[in-house]
Each structure stands twice: as C-alpha cells, then as structure tokens.
Write a structure and sequence with these properties.
transmembrane transporter activity; alpha+beta; ABC3_permease_C; transmembrane helix; five-stranded antiparallel sheet; membrane; Macrolide_Exporter_MacB
Length: 861
C-alpha cells in the first residue's frame, strides 16, 4: 500500500515540476546521445566496409602474398614452381599480378583526392586468364598496351575524366618517372565505393611499374573441382616452405609469405578495419564518458536540491507511515523515469549525431550505406542513461531516507548532508599530497613508466579536487568575490554570500567546468609544446632554404630528388629514403641519405665517429645508442623483408636531432634491405640554395621541376613549420570540438542549479523585492553568483590542467618533445570565457527570479 502511494507521489512530483524535469532529462540526453552516436557511427562504417570486403578476392581459392610491408613480393621462381606442379597441387588456374600505390591526375592536371582511401595501380588480365577478377566496363575497353589505362567510375567522376581523356599517373615508390596515359575504359566494381581510385594497366606495364622482374605482388589460385580451398592452401604452403628451406634462408616461411584462402583474406581485411574502428570508437566513447561524468555531477546536484526542496513533503510522508525504503525508492523511481526518458531521447539525438558524422566522412570519400541503428546502440543509450541517473541519484535518495521527520519539518531549505566538511577535506588533503608527489616524481622522469606515474597522479589529483572543492570554494570565491563586489555594492555582496552559502552545491556545479577546462589546458599544453618542438627542430636542425614534401603526407618516389637537382639555383639536395626491416625480430624503420650527405642540409652534432656514411655504415643518435647499447664499431644486423641478413657497422653517433631520423644506414645496405620498387622518400627533400640565388627564383625553379609529380609541394622553412603546426592545430580543434560536449553540459549544470536555487530561495527573493530591491538588481545578483561559480570552476580547472600537463610534457622528452610551452593566451581566453559562460547560464534563472512577485513569494509554503 505504502509503495503504491509513494509511486503516485513520485509521478505527481515529476508532473508538477515540468521545467525541473526537462532540465534534468536534458543533462542525461547530452551524455547518452554521444555514446549512442559513437556506437551507431562505428557500426555503420564497419558494416559498409564489410560489404566491400565481402567482394575482395571473390572467386579466389588461395592467395599468396608477401608477409612484409616492404617486401618486393613473391619470387617468380616460386610462381614457376607452382605452375610446374599445378596438377599435383590441385590448381585449376594461376594468375600472377603486380600492384602498387599511384597518383592519378584529374582533367586539370591536379591529383585526384581520395579522402584517405587507397589509390592503387593494378594488373588487368583478360577473363580467360584472371582468377576471381570481376571487372565490368561500362564505357570503353580494357587497357592493352603501355600508355593505356582503365579507371573505376568513382575516380572518373572525381577527376572529370572520360574515355579518351589524356592524363598522367605517378607511381608512389621506386624509380619510375611520371607517365602520360590515355583513359581507354571506365569500369564499375564494388571497390569503387568511397574515394577509392583504381587504375588498371595491362600486364606488361604493371610488371614494369611495380616489379623489378624477379617478383610479383600477388598470386591468385583457383582450385580444381574436388579440391577444397583449405586443401589447396595446405599444399601450396608446403611447396613454398620447401622452396624456402632449399634456398638456405633460416627464417620461417610464414615470416616471408602469407598463404591464405579467399575467406581468410576477406576476414583479415575486415579485422584490419575493425582494429581502426575499435580505436576510433574508444576515442569517441572516452569523450562521451567525460560528458557522462560531468552529467553525473549535474544530476547528483539536481537530485540533492530536489530532495532539499521536498524535505517537508518527505518528512510528512515519513510521519504518516512511509518507511526509509519507501522514501529512498520514491527518489530512485523519479531517477529511473528520468533515465529512461533521457536514454530514449538521447538515442534519437545520437542517430542525428551519427548521421552528421557519416555525411562528413562520406564527403571525404569513406563508404556509407546509410545509418545502421542496431540493437547495441539502443541498449547502450538506454542502459547508460538509466545507470548514470540512478547512480547520481543514489546518494540524495539515501540521504532523504535518513531525515528525521521532526527535523525536516522545521526547515525545508536545509540540504541533507550539508554539514561539516572535515572528513572529506581531510581525505582530499591525503589524495592531494599523494597526487602531487606522483606528478612530481613522474615529471622528473621520461618514457612510458614516468607517463604512467603522471597518469596515476592525475587521477589522485582529480579525486582530491572532487573531495576538497567545497572547502576550497569558500575562501577562493570569497577572495575574488570581495574584489568584484565593490562596483556592485550590496548586490555584489549578496551574490558572493549566495555563491558560498552551500559549498557542496557550488563545488559540484563548478566541477563541470573544472573537468572540461582541465582537459582543454592539458591538450593545449601538449599541442603548444609539440608546435614549439617543431619550430625549434626546424630552426636548429635544418640548413635547408626550401623543402619539397608530398601533400597529405604521401610518399614521394626517389626520382623527385633527381628532378629537384635539375633546378639551376639548387646547391645541395638531399632526402632520406626509408623502409622497414627487422631488428632482433621486431619491425623497425631505417633511412638512408639520398642525393648527398645528410650533413649538407642538417645541423648535426657528432659525439663519436663521423658523419661520413660508407655503404655498410650505420649512423645513430645518442638516444638509440643508449636504448640498444650500441657503441662505435659495433656490428648491427638487419633482416630484409625477403629474409636476407644485412650486416652494418656503427660509424657515427650524433646528438638527437628531431629534424632527421635516428637510424641511418649506408646506401649499399639500404639497397640490400629495400628492393628498387619499394624505395621511397621519408619526409621532405631538403634544398640549400646556391649563394646569391634569390628565394623567389629558386621557388619558381623548384615548382617547375616538380610540377609533373602531382603531390609534390614546395615550401620555405616558415611554410614547412606552419604545415606541421596546422596538422597539430587540426587535431587539437577536433579534440576541443569533442570537449565542447562537456562544456555544454557544464553550462546546462549552472542553469539547472541556479534555476532550482531560485525556486528554493523564492521566499528570500520575495522578501528582498518587498524591501525595495529592483528587478534589475535581482538579475544582477544571479548574474554575479553564476559568474563567481563559473570563474571558480575555471580557475580550478586551469590549475589542475597545468599541474597535469607540465609533468606529462616532461615525460615525453624521451620521444623528442623538447620543453614545456604553456598556452597563456588560451588560459586567459578560457578564464574570460568562463565569466561569459557564467552570465549566459544565468540569463533564464535571473529573469525568472526577477519576475518573482513579493507578496505571493512571502506567503507561499
């Protein structure tokens, strides 16, 4: 009986306070919508990619490829061995293909933009020779000789190309020069989804562009009738293993080649995109968690105030027979209803968020088959909304159940638990001391271990702030409130008193801004420090007057260096060719100077040995020397992607220079490690001008020399620094956009708290109006109170952000971050912004307070 009565009371309470209900629900909606949006977006993209990968290697029984990223491919000798034993192995048909990255020019001579999707050159085989290759030409025909290409419909649309168009193709690696081609066909395949660019060449041309004649990129096999894909795979694997063993190589066959069924190829492709999407989903959900954490404090604050305002009502219910459990369940029932409503609305908003993100990614070339709202998204939104709301309301509900009826009837505006702060302040001090100690210790070290210690210190510091903020709020708000109250007189004093009268509530309200601005300051400190390192590295580490880089971080072929050398005003031209090899069984990147000595274009301080790099030499930074224990004269053995061991000798050690790589091998060793078709440039081509050559003249010469390479761009030192800094700025802008969620919730929290506070203080405001306070003065009081709370939260967040950001940057010195750069402009802007946020958040509560009618307020219960 009592339970039914309490249920009715809860429902009537929600129905009679519609504005309060809307504000509380909205705080839940913002948090859950981002969770739902993240789940819907990633599942939709995953589904779209899976539909594409379902057609990869379609009709292929077994595929053989190289295992290493920079391998030249599968040796022709192995292909010949498979052909020789086709009958014995169960092979119906074998197709040897070559492929590689390319850049296609559009009708205006510029590179066709893919939005991050692959841009590949592929081998076309006639249907009677192909295995699983399904190419349908909607216009024109297949390429038949050198100088002819066919492209997918998506690339044709993006590049405004048609059958008969004259254009250009640049191979992304190797030594091939840009080639003039004619589009003879346009094909329509499943792989044309998104920004993908597929350029088909005839077999002879593809072999010339993407192979040295001794290797092929892929071997596709079709099984004979009665032979399963698995049986063919095992037979082919055994033959290749036998061939590797006979070659005398000590490496395992699986380290050199992948022998997979068509189903395995498709599954591996799906897994690769799933790994990316898992990371992306984790990032989105991390920011959603921040929003939910902020929302949790707001919901907790809201229910605490609601309980305080209903003290008499709840006490009366206790007096007429309701138990503690009845009261607690009544509050939790309201929270459950709010959570369900917020979760459902949040799901709807999440669908809209996901649709917006998908529209953007589709415009950038990523595939999309429409919004896919699965059961996982529905359950996650509602579950998160309900759980977060119930957890947030649990403490207020527990407090409400413990209020003695007689005490609660005496005063309806006393918030439960608003008593002594000694215990939580003492706990805050303990956590604070431990947090500061961890931050200091971590900041004195470098590397992953030190960063982990800083992370632990950050967590302890946040806990300390959560516990200690109420005690801190009184003196801090009191000090700057005393300063700012002077121009406003009595109104300013009253606002300061209201801001500190309930420190728990003020601290919980301010924490929303504290957390958001803490993250803004940490990210800002990291970003500005990275930009400072970039500027310092270029200024101190490079002698170059100009650099030539690939747009969108695309690699450049080595032939670009030879083209740049043709510029009359260029004196020194050096780039770093790069590739991947194995060191002690682990993948590692190596580079080699190409075009000249690295010391000609970079300022390098040698600590041991010489910068002269013989063919078998190894030049390393002092950091690499420490990490690996290498000394001058030591022999270091690298293993190529083909399993060949290449022995190098440490001939020089230099001070770490962020403008160049830390491991450089001689050109002879690089050629042994990297086949010609996989050689490419890492980073910029560095150019030093001849004495007396004007910068403008050299730029014109360089632009002319590199024009045919499509993706090559010429930059001076300042432009080069700005281009790198702009990438950092874009990343920071993305993070700030995601953090805006928590700031929106923070503003909502202040609005919510002030609106409920106005209701709670209705009699007080009515009394002030009765004794002469004007409406404008009431509004000004609320504005100032909100501003005090907002600025307090911003100050706390700034201090906490710097306390975490500075030691975190110091730990990154291990990876080359030179020093801490504090974004003072950003910090100043956030503090001013916090004051503005305070005024904006107070607009509606202030107007509501100003409209209070004195007589009605004084006589109301």
């Amino acid at each position: 009986m009592a339970a039914n009565v309490m249920r009715k009371v809860s429902l009537r309470s929600l129905a009679s306070h519609k504005i309060r209900l809307v504000l509380t629900v909205f705080s839940v909606v913002l948090g859950t919508s981002f969770v739902a949006g993240a789940v819907i977006f990633t599942s939709t993209v995953s589904s779209a990619f899976n539909s594409i990968f379902d057609d990869v290697a379609k009709g292929v029984s077994v595929e053989v490829t190289a295992a290493g990223q920079d391998s030249p491919g599968v040796p022709v000798a192995i292909v010949d061995g498979l052909k020789k034993n086709e009958q014995q192995l169960g092979i119906e048909r074998l197709a040897a293909l070559n492929s590689g990255s390319v850049t296609l020019a559009d009708s205006s001579g510029r590179a066709v933009q893919t939005g991050g999707a692959p841009s590949m050159g592929l081998t076309y085989l006639p249907p009677d020779q192909a295995v699983g290759q399904d190419v349908t030409f909607t216009q024109g025909r297949a390429p038949a000789k050198s100088g002819e290409i066919a492209i997918n419909a998506g690339a044709a649309d993006k590049g405004s190309l048609t059958v008969g168009s004259k254009t250009k193709v640049v191979v992304g690696a190797g030594l091939a020069a840009p080639m003039e081609v004619t589009v003879v066909g346009i094909n329509d395949t499943e792989s044309s989804t998104g920004g993908y660019v597929g350029v088909l060449f005839d077999q002879a041309t593809a072999a010339k562009l993407f192979s040295d004649g001794h290797y092929v990129s892929t071997v596709d096999l079709a099984a004979r009738p009665g032979v399963s894909d698995e049986q063919l795979r095992d037979a082919v694997h055994a033959q290749i293993a036998d061939a590797v063993a006979k070659s005398g190589k000590s490496v395992d066959v699986d380290e050199l080649y992948k022998v997979r069924t068509g189903d395995q190829v498709r599954e591996d492709q799906k897994q690769s995109i799933q790994q990316f999407l898992t990371i992306f989903r984790a990032i989105l959900l991390a920011f959603a968690a921040i929003g939910l954490l902020v929302g949790t404090f707001i919901i907790y604050n809201t229910f605490s105030m609601i309980v305080a305002q209903r003290n008499r009502e709840l006490a009366l219910l206790r007096a007429i027979g309701a138990s503690r459990e009845n009261v607690s369940r009544s509050v939790l029932l309201e929270a459950l209803i709010v959570g369900v409503i917020g979760g459902v609305i949040g799901l709807g908003l999440g669908v809209a968020i996901a649709a917006g993100m998908l529209a953007f990614t589709k415009s950038q070339g990523l595939p999309s088959n429409g919004v896919d709202v699965g059961i996982a998204a529905i359950l996650s939104a509602i579950f998160v909304g309900v759980v977060v709301t119930l957890l947030s309301a649990w403490i207020p509900a527990r407090r409400a159940s413990r209020i003695p009826p007689v005490e609660a009837m005496r005063e309806s505006t006393v918030e439960p638990g608003a008593g002594s702060l000694r215990v939580r302040t003492l706990a805050a001090a303990i956590f604070g001391v431990l947090g500061v100690a961890a931050l200091v210790v971590g900041g004195l070290g470098e590397g992953a271990g030190a960063a982990t210690i800083v992370g632990v210190g950050a967590l302890l510091a946040v806990i300390a702030v959560v516990l200690g903020a109420p005690a801190i709020s009184q003196p801090v708000v009191g000090v700057f409130g005393a300063i700012f109250q002077k121009p406003f007189g009595t109104v300013g004093k009253l606002a300061r008193t209201n801001a500190v009268r309930n420190p728990r509530r003020s601290a919980a309200t301010a924490f929303a801004l504290t957390l958001g601005l803490m993250l803004v300051v940490v990210i800002g400190t990291l970003g500005w420090s990275f930009k400072g390192t970039v500027n310092s590295s270029v200024d101190k580490g490079l002698k170059a007057d100009f650099v030539v880089t690939g747009t969108n971080n695309m690699p450049l072929p080595l032939s670009v260096v030879d083209a740049v050398k043709e510029a009359p005003g260029a004196d020194k031209v050096v780039a770093q060719a790069y590739g991947q090899a194995k060191l002690d069984g682990k993948d590692t990147y190596v580079t080699s100077p190409y075009g000249g000595a690295i010391g000609d274009v970079a300022s390098i301080t040698v600590t041991q040995g010489s910068l002269d790099l013989p063919d078998d030499g190894l030049l390393i930074s002092d950091a690499e020397s420490r990490d690996h224990g290498w000394k001058l004269g030591d022999q270091v053995t690298f293993t190529s992607a083909t399993g060949d061991e290449v022995v190098t000798k440490v001939t020089g050690i230099f001070e770490r220079n962020e403008a160049i790589t830390s491991v450089m091998v001689g050109w002879g060793s690089y050629e042994q490690l990297m086949p010609a078709v996989t050689k490419r440039i890492a980073g910029p081509v560095l150019v030093v001008a001849k004495p007396g050559v004007k910068a403008g003249d050299l730029r014109t010469q360089l632009e002319s020399a590199t024009a045919e390479y499509l993706t090559a761009q010429v930059q001076d030192r300042d432009q080069f620094k700005s281009s790198i800094s702009s990438q950092i700025d874009q990343m920071m802008a993305t993070l700030y956009a995601l953090l805006a969620l928590s700031l929106v919730i923070a503003v909502l929290g202040i609005v919510n708290t002030l609106a409920l506070s106005v209701v709670e203080r209705r009699q007080e405001i009515g009394m002030l109006r009765a004794v002469g306070m004007a409406r404008a003065q009431v509004r000004r009081t609320i504005y100032l109170e909100s501003t005090y709370i907002a600025v307090f939260g911003a100050l706390l967040g700034t201090v906490l952000g710097l306390a975490i950001g500075i030691p975190l940057v110091r730990t990154l010195a291990y990876w080359g971050l030179e020093g801490v750069v504090i974004p003072w402009g950003l910090i100043g802007g956030t503090l001013v912004g916090a004051a503005v946020v305070g005024v904006i958040a107070a607009l509606w509560p202030a107007v509501t307070a100003a409209r209070t009618r004195p007589l009605e307020a004084i006589t109301s219960e």
